[in-house]
Structure formats: C-alpha cells, structure tokens
Design a protein that fits this description.
Blueprint lengths: L19 E2 L5 E5 L16 E4 L2 H8 L10 H11 L2 E2 L1 E5 L7 E10 L4 E4 L10 E4 L3 E3 L5 E5 L5 E5 L10 E9 L6 H5 L1 E3 L4 E3 L7 H5 L5 E3 L7 H10 L10 E5 L11 H8 L6 E4 L2 E4 L2 E3 L1 H14 L18 E3 L10 H9 L4 E4 L3 E4 L12 H4 L1 H18 L9 H20 L5 E5 L7 H5 L6 E5 L15 H12 L1
Parallel strand pairs: 1-4, 2-5, 2-15, 15-16, 16-17
Antiparallel strand pairs: 3-5, 6-12, 7-11, 8-9, 8-12, 10-11, 13-14, 18-19, 18-20, 21-22, 23-24
C-alpha cells in the first residue's frame, strides 16, 4: 500500500440529474430516429417505446443532433437534457427495411491505425470494410468499428496480417435514408391483412402495452402539415374508446413568417379544436433549433411534475430554457407583450423574452370561436381530460361487479373524498359526485347501466391582473403638513 503524506485531489464522475417523473402530461412523440445506432434496429419501428432517461432512449432508438432528419431526437434532447423529465413514449416510423439506400465509399484515409466514416446512418451489422479496394477485413479480428457522437463510424485497426500497411480503406453496406419518410408514414394506418398498425395508429397500443394513458400527442417536424395535424387532433379523443388527451401542434413558420399572419394561417389549416394547442414559432438553444411543440410539451410535463402530477397550472409564463425564438430559416422573432396578446387572441401560444424566454398563451385552438371555460383554457381542458382518465382508471375494476347499493356507495364515498382532497389542496375549486335516482330508473339498472353525476370546477388562469393607481393630493398634503409639524 502506498505511503501518502500530502494534500491531494481527485475528480469524480459527474452525477447525472435524475429526471422528475410524471404521467399527467405523458408525451407520446411520433417521428424518426437514427435507428441504425439502436441496440436492435429491426425491433423499433411502429411500436411504442417508453424511456426514462437519455441514455436509455439513445440505446433503444439512437440519437443525432440532426433534428430535421431525425425528428424524435429533439424531444429526446429537450425532455431529458434540458428539462430532465420522464417518461417519454416514442413511436419511430423510420423503417430499417423500407427507408434505406446502398452505401459505398472508397479512399477512406487511415492515420495511426484509425479512420472514420463521416456519413451518418450507416448500419454496422452489414458494414463491409476492405483494405484498399480488394482485401476484405473481419470485424473484431482486423478492426473495431463504433458510432461516434456525430453519427458517423470510427474505425480502429487491430494488429493482424491484413492491417500491417493499410493507408486507405473502402466501405460498403446499407445506409438509412430518412428523406424517404413521408407524411403518410407519420399518419400511418391499419393493414387489415396483417393486423399491423403504423404511424399515429400505434397510439392505440400505448395503454394495452404499457398501461399508461397518453397526456400529450406530438409529431415535431411533421405536425405543421395540415393533414398530419388533423389526424393528430382526431387521435386525442376516444383513445381505446375511452381516454382523452391533448396535442401540441406546430404552425408552419416557413409560411406564417409574421405574427399578424397567424389568424389567416390557422383558418387555412382548419385547426379549431379544444384538444389542440397551436404553437408558433420555433425556438433555439445554442445552435440547436427545436420545433416549439417539442419544447412546450417537455416544459408542460415538467410543470405538471412540480404540481404533484396534476395539470392545474397553466403552462404559460413558464420558462422554456431556450435562447431565442426563430423562424424555419433562422430569422429571430422578438414579440413584445402587445404583439403576443394578438397572437393569443387567435388561439395560438407563442414565446416572449421576459427575464428569460417563456411560453405565452392560455388558449386552446378552439378559441376564439369557443369560449366555454373547459374548452377555451388550456389548463381547464387538460384538467378535464385528466380527471376523466382518472375516474376511468380508478373505477374500471368495478365494472361487472354486482350493481347494488354497496357499489354505488363505494364509488360516491371514495370519489367525494378524493375530490375534497383536491379542493383542500388547491388543485381544483371544488367538486362533488352523486348518484341521482331520476337518472337511474329501474329499467336502466335492469339493463346493467349505472350513471353517476359529477360537478367539478377548475381554477382558470389569472390572465389579466390590473392595479388602478391614483395620485392622491391629500396624501401629499398630509405628508408635507406632517413634515412641517
């Protein structure tokens, strides 16, 4: 054992922040990932994959900073590395069989027994390397290949007969081609012959497979297309026949370049839906540009998690942890409060810089055509969906029980206790559930139907706070008189 007589230091590995967890705003994100980097590239297409950390998501789906080609990665990045919130469910539509092309490259330079394939998307499992253009090399015997942080492949030559004097390599194999992915892949569908679901249709599998209910549906990089947006909006209602959630949808910043054009752009897209939150423009952090939906959804999930996993707080005036608001071409957008108010009046959420970039807007896409508080306010709409899902999940075990007084009493008593707890904690304004005989005639009960009635009220956001300030000469006179005395 060494003899130590000194002062010393030692660097420790950085402790990764454990993501906060919450499911009231459970993100279900549909798009593309660099699955050539995934642990099992053939098993991650058109299936819901739940992840709880960046490392896990990267391992299962791959990761790239190329957010335009690999749209799921922006949600992966912002959820885990910016807001540190989990879990997130990803549905990748990029198919390792369908969306690929032949890869071939010669003249790869070798220096100090190391070389690199700079192109991203190349598969390792069928990569073929040759010394020069003639001599095949064997993986694990003549070389080791691994992905680098840029999505390319780093090659290290091992000591063998074939590698003694290599200065150039050639490579061939297969490469992902995300440009082949279309909006039809995102929209997806159901194949009656195979029973297979693809794209947005896979959302149906989330609860049966994972026993979790979607909270927010998004498809950053794709939802600005009106057809994709319409399907996303439709998927927020009646998931598995019973569940409801909301969707975060981007407006096209390549078309709506100024805030005054948003009303016309919204009307042209035909998105007037109380379950939809429309977002404009994009946001940027450093050199990374994110679709607003990816950042807003992660921020909303984080906000919910800080409020006991209850979506009572409006995700407006909350920090986005971003550095700028931008258009698709990179042009910065700087709205003041007056301009942002106009955007909000269209039923669109935007971003303002007020001691940090913040989400700004409380209205769903239904506004201004619909002013019912439960459908207009984002927080009320999300609370209504959340409460409906809560009731379903809590009492579904009662289905098929004897329809007697004991069942009715257990539902009424337990749910009123829960509603009272929410009210006393300040999460709702109040609520009560009852069993009313006039809604439950004997004919209905004999038919196996029992109906409960709940009255509930959610807090609406204090969107406008005003202080009327008056100059009072009498106060001044009193102050002067007091000073003279």
């Amino acid at each position: 054992m060494a003899y130590n007589h000194r002062i010393d230091t030692e660097e420790m590995a950085t402790r990764l922040t454990v993501p906060v967890q919450g499911t009231s705003a459970l993100q279900v994100v549909v798009g593309t990932c660099p699955i050539n980097m995934a642990e099992d590239p053939g098993a991650v297409t058109n299936v819901p994959i739940i992840t709880y950390s960046f490392t896990e998501a990267q391992k299962l789906l791959g990761y790239s900073d190329d957010f335009k080609q690999y749209t799921l990665c922006q949600s992966m990045d912002v959820s885990y590395r910016v807001f540190s919130v989990a879990p997130v469910i990803f549905i990748n539509v990029l198919d390792a069989v369908k969306h690929k092309k032949v890869f071939s490259k010669e003249g790869i330079s070798v220096k100090d027994r190391k070389a690199s394939i700079m192109e991203a998307g190349v598969f390792l499992n069928n990569l073929e390397l040759k010394a020069g253009t003639d001599t095949p090399l064997a993986a694990g015997v003549d070389y080791i290949a691994e992905f680098n942080t840029s999505g390319g492949i780093d090659i290290t030559l091992l000591t063998s007969e074939k590698t003694a004097d290599i200065t150039l390599l050639s490579a061939s194999g297969e490469q992902l081609d995300p440009s082949k992915v279309t909006k039809e892949d995102i929209i997806g569908g159901y194949d009656a012959a195979t029973g297979k679901e693809t794209g947005l249709e896979v959302i149906r599998q989330v609860y049966p497979k994972l026993n979790l209910v979607p909270g927010l549906i998004l498809a950053p990089g794709w939802s600005q297309d009106p057809e994709v947006a319409a399907v996303i909006a439709a998927k927020t209602r009646g998931i598995n026949g019973v569940f409801h959630c909301e969707a975060a949808i981007d407006m096209d910043t390549s078309k709506a370049k100024v805030y005054t054009a948003l009303r016309e752009a919204k009307e042209a897209a035909g998105i007037i839906n109380e379950h939809v939150i429309l977002l404009w423009p994009k946001v940027r952090l450093g050199t990374k540009v994110y679709c607003f939906s990816a950042v807003w959804a992660a921020m909303t999930a984080y906000t919910d998690a800080r409020n006991n996993n209850i979506p009572m707080k409006s995700p407006s005036n909350e920090l986005l942890n971003m550095g700028a608001a931008v258009l698709d071409d990179g042009t910065e957008v700087l709205l003041d409060t007056t301009q942002a108010e106009l955007v909000n009046s269209f039923g669109v959420v935007t971003a303002i810089n007020d001691n940090g970039w913040r989400a700004w807007g409380n209205n769903t896409a239904a506004y201004p055509g619909i002013t019912d508080p439960k459908d207009r306010w984002i927080s009320c709409r999300r609370m209504m969906s959340w409460y409906r899902n809560h009731f379903l999940l809590t009492f579904k075990e009662k289905v098929d029980n004897p329809g007697n007084y004991r069942l009715i009493e257990s539902v009424v008593d337990s749910e009123n206790l829960y509603l009272n707890s929410l009210s006393h904690s300040g999460y709702i304004a109040g609520g009560v559930i009852s069993f009313q005989e006039d809604e439950n005639p004997i004919t209905s009960i004999l038919d196996g139907n029992i109906i409960f009635y709940t009255k509930i009220a959610f807090w609406v956001p204090a969107e406008y706070i005003k202080n009327n300030i008056e100059f009072d000469p009498e106060i001044l006179a009193g102050a002067i008189g007091g000073g003279a005395a």
